[in-house]
Structures are given as structure tokens and as C-alpha cells.
Amino acid sequence: MFMDNTYWLHQTTERPLFEAVIWNQPQRRNVAGKLAIIGGNGHGFNIVSEVFALANQAGIGVSRVLMPDSLSHTIGKIWPDCEFAPSTKSGGFATTALTEWQNLASWADGTLICGDLGRNSETAILLDRFLETNSEFVALFGDALDLAISTPLSLINRGNLLIGPSLSQFQKLLSSIRYPTAIKSSLSLDQLADLLHSLTLNYKLSIVYVHEGIVFIADAGQVSSTPTTYDTIGRTITASTVWRLQQPAKPFEAMTSAIYKFGLQAA
Question: How far apart are CA 91 and CA 87, in angstroms?
Fold first, then answer.
């Protein structure tokens, strides 16, 4: 372990930054956390099933999945434990699904809204209302984050939120809030770490970001970086979410350790 800045920690592939966090990871499923997974639309649910499998690999105790009822005839028989909520005519979640979203979130320790939601305006309204009315931990990526960026100030000021943006999503978010520093693919690692540091100090936001084979974790001004041989944000944010739920007193340390333990093993 070494430091370039007091806020930026470098995790190597040979040794984790926080060995104690890894040793304290729950070994029994009944104390390993409860995760709500929300996503899908009438035309697709691949990311939902992928996240469900990844959460199990990362060691979640129990997870429940909620999809729009436009999918009930397609997957109801092959995935009998899946739950459904009202959908629009186009197959996305309807605003009347808010009760189901809230009920599932109240059961869980945290909610991962993983995408495949579609570009439905009614679903965007639903997501905005859910983020406003639910104060528990939520993680967002994929097109779920695209929908949430439409109301950027409420998103970044919510607190208890983790996002896994792509480069274009990150650019759109910073532009929407008129952040003084832009993010570009050409940023040096030092510049990127500084941006993540200042952004998560100024706003109540945690970030998982993949850049040139390096996974960055940013939370409350702290930044870690871990080199990896994979670059899927679905894998990184799912692992980070599971470990954060399991060790909520140390969110930064838990998410950083998840990238080392789960990400590198799966690479």
C-alpha cells in the first residue's frame, strides 16, 4: 500500500488495503444481508438475472427480485420466486408500482436498481418518487442511472446512494449540475482521483467508476484504486453493494475490499 495523496489509496493485486474487513466478512447466509433487486421491462431482463447471480457470488444472504408484470408470463414459470409490479402498456414499470418498490425496499438492507428499465417517462417519474420517499441505501447503474440523471440535484443530494456511471453518464451528470471540472477519457489518474475526491466531498454520493482497467471507489472524499482485468460495471457495483450492506459502519473499506476479494477472483 502506498499513497500519492492522503485521500487516495492504491490497492494492489497482491495485497488488500483492509485485511480486517475481509476477515470480518459474514460466513453465514442468515447474517449476510438482504438485497432488493429491481429492474427489467417487457423487452428484456438479462441484466436483472446477471445481477442476481453476481449478488449470490458476492455472498449476499438473501435477495429478492422485482420486475414489471409485463414479464410475468415470460419468466413467471422459470423464475417462480420473482415478484412483479404494475407495468405500462409499453412494458416498463408504471408509477403505480411505487408501493411494491417501497415495500421491497423496507424489507431489504439496501436496493440495487440495475437497469433494463427502458426509456419510459412514467418509469422515470416512478424512480424519482422512490428516491425521494425512500431514505435507505440505494445503488444505481445502467439505464436506471440515465433516468435518475434527469433530476440531478435531487439525485446527488439524496445521500445513502451509490452510482456506477459510464463515461457518458458521468459527463452528463457533471454537466447537469454545472460542476466546474469536466470528466474526460484523457484525464490522468491523478486528475480523476482528485475529481472523485472533491465530488464526493461536496455531495452526498458514493461512486464506483471503471477507468482503463482500474476500479475507483469514492466515498466521503476517500478514493481507492484497484487494477483489474475486467471492466464490467455490473460486476463492480454489485460486489460493492453487497459488501457495503454487510459492513455498513465502514462503507469505503467494505466497497474497496469487495473489488479485491470478489472482482479479482472473478477476473
Answer: 6
- The number of beta carbons lying within 10 Å of the beta carbon of residue 171 is 15
Q: State pLDDT tens for residues 54-71.
A: 999 999 999 999 999 999
18: which DSSP letter? -
Among 230, 225, 186, which residue's Cα sits nearest to residue 208? 225
Q: Helices 233-246 and 251-258: crossing angle, nearest 10°?
A: 140
Average of per-residue pLDDT across 67-90: 89
Would you place residue 231 in the very low, low, confident or very high pLDDT band (cuts 50, 70, 90)? low
Helix residue ranges, H only, the chain: 19-23, 46-57, 72-75, 98-107, 121-133, 143-148, 152-156, 167-176, 189-202, 233-246, 251-258, 264-266
C-alpha span between 183 and 192 (Å, rounded): 8
Parallel, antiparallel, or unpaired: how do β-strands 222-227 and 138-141 relate?
Answer: unpaired
What distance in Å separates the CA atoms of residue 56 and residue 226, rounded to the nearest whole number?
22
Pick the CATH number of 3-266 from 1.10.1200.10, 3.90.1150.10, 3.55.30.10, 3.40.1190.20: 3.40.1190.20
Which set of grid coordinates corresponds to residue 202?
461536496
